[in-house]
Amino acid sequence: MKVLLDHDPSLGKTFGQSNVTPLITAAIRGHTEVVNLLLERVSGLVELSKANGKNALHFAARQGHVEIVKALLDADPQLARRTDKKGQTALHMAVKGTSAEVVQGLVNADPAIVMLPDRNGNLALHVATRKKRSEVLFCPVYRMQNSIYLLFLPYKMQLSLLTGLFTFCRS
What we know:
Blueprint: H1 2-7, H2 22-29, H3 32-41, H4 56-63, H5 66-75, H6 90-94, H7 100-109, H8 124-130, H9 134-137, H10 140-150, H11 155-170
Helix pairs in contact: 2-3, 2-4, 3-5, 4-5, 5-7, 7-10, 8-11
């Protein structure tokens, strides 16, 4: 990889057959060293996404790759707010997985992302409740941020979340 990038850094921005960049591929597969090398050598790479709008952070968050999530956020702290075509942030993807550490890292990087709904009006907390992700729902940082922000949600959304949490806790 180093030899190729030394020869032609623009190779880092190429899209493969699956419409993915080398950074997205490395993020999906958990190759931290490759991610760090690409971020160091190829500028503007974090902005590239697949046709569905998902970027490397979406994939790393879903897969639970903590170190890659940290590296991507260090490269671009605003990446946490970027959405895919469904309006989902990396936090929406992270709560589908099982890494509370990734969820905490995303919330620590930008606490306001807990309040960003997707195109269907779902917060990441809705997704975590539906997926029954107790390790995420009871993550201390996430729980604290949601307790604060829940006060500012419209009543119907509060009711929806509380109903989902009640159902989750009973199962």
